[in-house]
UniProtKB/TrEMBL annotation:
UniProt keyword list: Metal-binding, Molybdenum, Oxidoreductase, Signal
Name listed for the protein in its UniProt record: Sulfite dehydrogenase
Span of domain Moybdenum cofactor oxidoreductase dimerisation: 287-404
Entry keyword annotation includes Lipid metabolism: no
């Protein structure tokens, strides 16, 4: 069972006992005579490996072929207006590899020629401007690590258990280091007129995605980004240039950014009226719910990451994040919310970024109800799904940040469940 402040770590005692018994760590498998993995010459020991020019862009090991994005076939009408999901259960740390970042398309991934790329700034500005990619890269740039979460992440769970895998309940999120130019630098170059209070960001894909953004946010921390994790954006992530709107719903992070218009009021386009608004139980709609509330999820154990080793030391791992700041604390429960203990945060703690947490304990093989609960730097605490439904009903597809429950069974399998 879990460690408590007044009880020493059972894992530590376990390892100490192992060391006393001849120095063997009991977490390792017992030595077996004739283990062919040891006694037989393996092919990688007697044959040359791949030459250095065999893969001029490095690829994962073929033994990691299952670590891929995944799509839910029935969720969208076709592959052009579709979503694929980050395999959170296969990852560790906080950085999402570029090839595994979830993708949301409204008209497929546009293939934009960087030599013909242009970014226009017009509307209520003193000097309407057009930038090439090279023009943007001449401005002083910044590097920032942020999460990007679709407002519909976990949306399929509003009415109850739907998807049996963390990749599909929470995988509409990724976390990368962006390199780009502060949007305020470009707006200062154009000169925003006094009447300018809002921006319209528009993409150059066939859907002409567009969103209204308050000028205050644009001048605060938004980036016009051209790199992610040190290399050029991927086409599905908006190559060659996308907008970065830290902490706010992913639909506002307009990809293949082609135009920024300054205006005096919001535009009320499709993606902020009929879509990406929250229908309440009484028929009213919450609008402009941009910020992503504090949220967390245990990524392992989870339905796609069962416990295969049986009883003994077990590492619980997960992610927490908030669109309003950092995550100073994550709580873990093994009994569905009756008793809570603090998880261990590990790695860097960036503003509006994923935070990795761990909790280690000795599992005795009994069934558990695993949950995590995030606290953010504003004092906000992640709510239960039941509490959210009492406030907002079940009509919305967006902004579900309720606590997720996994049922770890005695045989190591894990199911998506709810407790009340």
């Amino acid at each position: 069972m879990p460690d408590t402040p007044d009880k020493p770590s059972s894992r530590r005692a376990f390892l100490t006992a192992g060391a006393a018994a001849g120095g063997a760590m009991l977490t390792a498998g017992p030595a077996r005579a004739g283990d062919p993995a040891i006694t037989e010459m393996q092919p990688w020991r007697r044959n040359l490996g791949d030459p250095i020019d065999d893969a001029l862009y490095g690829m994962p090991s073929p033994f990691e072929a299952d670590v891929i994005r995944g799509r839910v076939e029935w969720l969208t009408p076709d592959a052009y207006t579709a979503i694929n999901f980050t395999p959170l259960h296969e990852l560790d740390g906080i950085i999402t590899p570029n090839g595994l970042c979830f993708q949301r398309s409204h008209a497929g991934a546009a293939q934009v020629d960087p030599a013909k790329y242009r970014l226009m700034i017009n509307g209520l500005v003193e000097r309407p401007l057009v930038f090439t990619l090279q023009d943007l890269q001449r401005f002083p740039r910044e590097n920032r690590t942020y999460f990007l979460e679709c407002a519909a992440n976990s949306g399929m769970e509003w009415r109850g258990v739907q998807m049996d895998g963390v990749q599909f309940t929470h995988g509409m999120i990724h976390n990368v280091e962006y390199t780009g130019v502060p949007l305020r630098s470009l707006l200062e170059e154009a000169g925003v007129k006094t009447a300018g209070k809002w921006l319209l960001a528009e993409g150059s894909d066939a859907a002409a995605m567009s969103r209204s953004i308050p000028l205050e946010k644009a001048l605060d921390d938004c980036l016009v980004a051209f790199n992610m994790n040190g290399e050029a954006l991927r086409p599905e992530q908006g190559y060659p240039v996308r907008l970065v709107v830290p902490g706010w719903e992913g639909n506002m992070w307009v990809k293949w950014l082609r135009r920024i218009e300054v205006g005096d009021k919001p535009w009320h386009h499709r993606e902020e009226t009929s879509k990406y608004s929250d229908l309440m139980a009484d028929g009213r709609t919450r609008r402009f719910t941009w910020e992503m509330d504090a949220k967390s999820v245990i990524t392992s154990p989870s339905p796609q990451a069962p416990v295969l080793h049986g009883k003994g030391p077990l590492v619980v791992s997960g992610l927490a994040w908030s669109g309003r700041g950092t995550i100073p604390q994550v709580d873990i429960t093994l009994d569905g919310g009756i008793n809570w203990v603090k998880a261990r945060l590990s790695g860097p703690s960036f503003d509006k970024s994923l935070h990795r947490f761990y909790y280690e304990f000795d599992w005795d093989g009994r069934p558990l109800l695993l949950q995590s609960r995030a606290h953010d730097s504003t004092g906000y605490v992640q709510p239960t799904k039941e509490a959210l439904r009492k406030l907002r009903g079940v009509n919305s597809n967006y902004h579900n940040n309720g606590i997720q429950t996994w049922h770890l069974q005695s045989d190591g399998r894990v199911e998506n469940v709810e407790v009340s």
